[in-house]
Amino acid sequence: MQTTRPRGRPRTFDRQAALEAAMELFWRHGYEGTSIADLTTAMGFTPPTLYAAFGSKEDLYREVIQFFLLRSERRRMDAALEQPSAYAMLRSYLYAAAESFTDPHTPAGCMVATAALQCASENQPIAQEVARIRQHMVLGFVERLNEAKTSGELPATIDALALANFYTAIVQGMSVQAIDGARTNDLLAVADLALSAWPGTKDEG
C-alpha cells in the first residue's frame, strides 16, 4: 500500500475534470499499469499537488472508482432494477452493458467488472475493494431474483445466488470481449443468448 504524502494545499482546480482524466487512465491501463507520472501529466498536476489533493495513488483510485460508479455503473444498475419484471431487469442491464462497454467515447469494457482482477501483493487492498463492489452488485441482483421467486416469475426451486453469479459472469465476459475488440452487435448477440437461458417467465414489462 502506498503511503499518503500530503504536501500542502493544492491550487484551486476542477476536481471533476481531474477525476475524469484519472479515470480514463485507470480504465484504459488498470491500477498497476498507471503510474504517478501518467496521472500527473493527464491531470496537469505536479506530484506534490496530486498528493495534496488526493492523498496517494491508492486514495485517488478509490475516489475514481466511486466517481465511475455514480456516473455509470450505478445508473445502469438502478435503471435495470426499476424495470417491472425480473426478466426486463436483466434484459435492460445486459443491453445497457453491451452499449456501454463498446461506447467509442470511453475505454472499452467496464472499469469495475474487470478492474484489478490480479494485483501484486502490495496492491491487494485495491483488488479486495473492487471485488467487494462487484459482490455488492451481485447481491442486488439476488435480492431482485428472490422477489421474482416470491411473485412466481421464477420457480421456487431456483438458486437465486447461482443465477445472479451466472449472469454476472456473462457481464464480466462481455467486458473482456469488448476490450478484445468486440462490437456492440457482438455483445448484444451474447446478451440475447444469455437471456434465452432465463429459467422463468419472459415478461418484458
Structural summary, described in words:
It is built from 8 helices and no strands. Helices cover 64% and strands 0% of the residues. By secondary structure, the protein is an all-alpha fold. The termini are far apart. It is elongated. The protein has a domain at 68-197: Tetracycline Repressor, domain 2, CATH 1.10.357.10.
Key features of this structure:
205 residues, mainly alpha, 64% helix, 0% strand
What is this structure's SSE topology?
Elements: H1 15-29, H2 36-43, H3 47-54, H4 57-81, H5 86-101, H6 124-151, H7 160-179, H8 184-195
Give the gist of this structure.
Helices cover 64% and strands 0% of the residues. It is built from eight helices and no strands.
Q: So how many helices?
A: 8
Q: Using the coordinates above, name the CATH class of one domain.
A: Mainly Alpha
Overall CATH architecture of one domain: Orthogonal Bundle
State which percent range the strand residues make up.
under 5%
Helix-and-strand structural type = mainly alpha
InterPro entries: Homeodomain-like_sf (IPR009057), HTH_TetR (IPR001647), Tet_transcr_reg_TetR-rel_C_sf (IPR036271), TetR_C (IPR011075)
GO molecular function, one term: DNA binding
Keywords: DNA-binding, Transcription, Transcription regulation
Protein name: HTH tetR-type domain-containing protein
